[in-house]
Amino acid sequence: MRTLPLFGVSLLALAACQRSDRTSTVQPTPPAPLQLGDPRPGLTSDELAAFDRGKLLFK
Fold first, then answer.
1. How far apart are CA 25 and CA 13, in angstroms?
2. Euclidean distance between CA atoms 56 and 48, whole angstroms
3. What residues have CB less than 8 Å from 32, skipping those under 6 apart?
4. Do the beta carbons of residue 27 and residue 35 sit within 8 Å?
5. Burial of 44 (0-12, 13-18, 19+ CB in 10 A)
6. Does the model's pTM come out above 0.85?
7. Can you spell out the DSSP letters for 1-28?
8. From its phi and psi, is residue 25 left (phi > 0), alpha (psi between -120 and 50) or beta?
9. Going residue by residue through the chain (59 aa), what tens digit of pLDDT does each one get?
10. What is the CA radius of gyration of the chain?
11. Alpha-carbon torsion (9, 12, 14, 16), positive or negative
């Protein structure tokens, strides 16, 4: 009679492991590496224009 609760607990543990495996297979794409002097990603067009003007100043 003691095997029935153990079987239930084992079944729940197995279900929990499968659920976590399913969610861990999706991995975010890492951002592209930045080179020194490159603008940061996500700049607005105005910010990128200001960056380019500043880059010309220091050439």
1. 19
2. 12
3. 41
4. no
5. exposed
6. no
7. -THHHHHHHHHHHHHHHHHHHHHHT--P
8. alpha
9. 555 566 666 666 666 666 554 555 678 888 788 888 899 989 999 999 999 999 998 88
10. 26
11. negative
